């Protein structure tokens, strides 16, 4: 007994002489640093010219314009010319030559930004337009815990707006009482955010707006009440009318505003990054007047300036300096590394991305600007031909040899002969030419080589 007492006394004295023992960090100590929520909103078929703060004279976008004043605007963001190529590139951070197989499809073995954030504890949600095939559980495989989506296992062309047909977490639903798809999607997102407000969460909202058919929104009152959905093979009812494009743009803006209002209501605006962009140029039926009087036609599907130049606005209260205008080149492959960067998620070793995070630019940190962007465009869709090009803010070189001065010739009507370039311009084009051999995938998947028969359900772009 005395011996035990003596040993205990020695231990006590030793501890007192050695000073206080430092507290050991628990495994969850790092988690006390709150990780930011991330919301990515991508409107369908809107080029930069459809937003008021980008110079539009005809579309009312006060909430997006307010985002610009309170956050950051990017003047040089570039998507793919069509929907599916943009979505695959955006979600995987890879140029289309690496993983694009066919129209309306995402390889379910691909890793997306949702997979990466989910693996690190983020709750994930997607609502809106899918258009990437797979079964009714494909969004789960792409990393999304919860989803409400139009166009997963079907394309019901006119059922994205009034009385939509959607899949919610694997269950097919058909609305019949005048419900409006965009309203259902944004309410689903707001409900998700309310339940997951303690975070962190990722929300991806690929809108169905403002893709044709151009039809009235509920805010148009009687026009919406009287609107009758017309499907293939049916007669009568109301058909697409470009005069309603203004309605759709106003509802795009309304949805963005509702999401911003919700993060303020939940008290998480200082810990939530919101990004807003468009998936390609505006639909070819639309002509938009700018504040300088210029008319810009929709050039969706085309590889010129008006087919790929889209808006990009970022908002993060207290983190992004208000009124920031950035002229850096941004590519759709940049979104995955930017989202991971913001979330503090390390991109897995061995994962290939063609993107560069633009988060440092948003936060006023050192950033090395891209000198050029590369586009591999081969949508396997209708008459759209394969085109590959490299460009910066002023010049563009196609792999087939055509050179365009895009600032002077945005429609690319007048190719420039290399002999007519200055010495510096020739050096620039030579540097562009060196990019193409590096952008080749050697192990082309069999599916990419196989011509896929187009079905009637694949007409949506």
Quick structural gist:
This protein has helices at 2-17, 62-70, 83-92, 96-99, 113-119, 138-141, 181-195, 222-226, 245-265, 305-308, 335-343, 359-362, 423-433, 446-449, and strands at 37-43, 72-78, 123-129, 146-150, 165-168, 171-174, 201-206, 272-278, 287-289, 295-297, 309-315, 324-331, 373-377, 387-391, 395-398, 403-405. With 461 residues, the protein is α/β, with parallel strands linked by helices.
H/E element order: HEHEHHHEHEEEHEHHEEEHEEHHEEEEHH
Largest β sheet strand count, sense and barrel closure: 10 strands, mixed
Q: By helix and strand content, what is the structural category?
A: alpha/beta
The radius of gyration over CA amounts to 25 Å
Please tally the β strands and state the result.
Answer: 16
Low-confidence stretches: 1-32, 444-458
Helix content: 25-40%
Strand content: 15-25%
Shape: globular
**Average of per-residue pLDDT values:** 90
Q: Which strand order do you get reading across the main beta sheet?
A: 6-5-4-3-7-1-8-11-2-12
Number of helices: 14
Total separate domains: 1
Superfamily at the CATH H level? Answer: Alkaline Phosphatase, subunit A
- CATH C-level class: Alpha Beta
CATH topology: Alkaline Phosphatase, subunit A
The N- and C-terminal alpha carbons lie at a distance of 85 Å
Name given to the CATH architecture: 3-Layer(aba) Sandwich
